[in-house]
Design a protein that fits this description.
The chain is mainly alpha-helical. The protein has two domains: about 1-30; about 35-90, DNA polymerase, domain 1 (Orthogonal Bundle). It is about 60% helix and about 5% strand. It has helices at about 1-30, 40-45, 50-65, 80-85; strands at about 35, 90.
């Protein structure tokens, strides 16, 4: 009886750990900002991006088409390599 209880508890613990990882992955994906479709408001969620810089990103995207790489953001006035490093891990190009 004790052995069965221990096995059940271990299985439950393993299941919870696996569930926590999938929830964490979903949260990480939700915090990513797609720079090819994000609105001005969404872009402001990135560190160092305020309203005027977010507007410039959208204007650049509208004038030049979708970003082909994240590094292309450096072409937007006001975004340099240092600023880019603050949010590089939060952007995606879907």
């Amino acid at each position: 009886m004790k052995r069965t209880l221990v096995v059940c508890l271990l299985f439950a613990l393993i299941s919870l750990v696996g569930f926590g990882a999938s929830v964490s992955s979903a949260a990480d994906a939700a915090s990513m900002i797609n720079i090819n479709s994000a609105s001005i408001v969404q872009l402001q969620e990135l560190p160092g991006i305020g309203p005027s810089l977010a507007e410039r990103i959208v204007a650049y995207r509208e004038a030049n088409g979708s970003f082909k790489s994240a590094d292309q953001l450096i072409e937007v006035k006001g975004i340099g390599k240092r600023k880019m490093e603050k949010f590089r891990d939060r952007i995606t190009l879907e």
